[in-house]
Amino acid sequence: MTSVKSHSIEQRVISADAASTAVRAAVAKADELGLRINVAVCDSSGVLAAFLRMPGAFLHSVDIAIDKAYTSAGFGFPTSKWGAALTGDELLRAGLPLRPRLVIFSGGLPIKEGGVVIGGIGVSGASAAQDEICAQAGIDAIGL
């Protein structure tokens, strides 16, 4: 008997409910801190799953939030870690930040469940540290 080789793999992604909960929680944290942010959650493929823009948040931060979520989901680590990741490799340091949609400053976090990346959350509109605080509040709200 011959076995049939599969040509596909299963990929876990964040649920619509969890994505919605995460963006609402990030906005609630921003409101508590007196901030105005844009927040995005994408699935593990980098496809937008949820987005909220607070009234008064910077317009250009819309795309930045989406790209932070995309970057953190795609690489599986916080966007704040890029500085260290690029240290010591001058060609990588010079070229990688030129890639479209890659964000190398704080505010993007991977969303992991059981060690598996299921999505990413990105926040933009406040300071880098405040963006990351709001992103973490989104992750905390879904118990991850």
Automatic annotation (TrEMBL):
Pfam family, one: HbpS-like
Protein origin, superkingdom: Bacteria
Alphabetized Gene3D superfamilies for the sequence: Haem-degrading domain (3.30.450.150)
Stated name of the protein: Heme-binding protein
